[in-house]
Amino acid sequence: MVRYTLFAAALALAACATPQDSASNSASPAGRDCFNSNSVSGYSYIDNQHVGINVGANRRYVLTTMFNARDLDWTQAIALRSSNGWVCTGNGVGVEVIGGDPRRTYPITAITRAADEAPNAEQGS
Prior knowledge:
Strand content: 35-45%
Largest sheet: 7 strands, antiparallel
Order of helices and strands: HEEEEEEEEE
Radius of gyration: 21 Å
């Protein structure tokens, strides 16, 4: 009977720990400029080491890679992958742009928020 009680207690503890661990891996890091990698709605070529991405309707980011982004086949599906599902500004460790045929992987070295376009100050002139 003691064995069954110990087994049941261990099973209960394991069940309690699992949801907390998976929840912490799926939550955005607090206080950081982050987005879920599945939220990317578009990609654009900026220059050889920079790829622009759109997140939602009005958020833009710039991804920096050490590889030539021009070599990425823009006619094929492109995806953004991260080790935990979240992409945050700063160091790009664990983030990759993937695409092309044959498939190529472009490790990201830095992620920055794109500068917003300045409003047109000369409207109506």
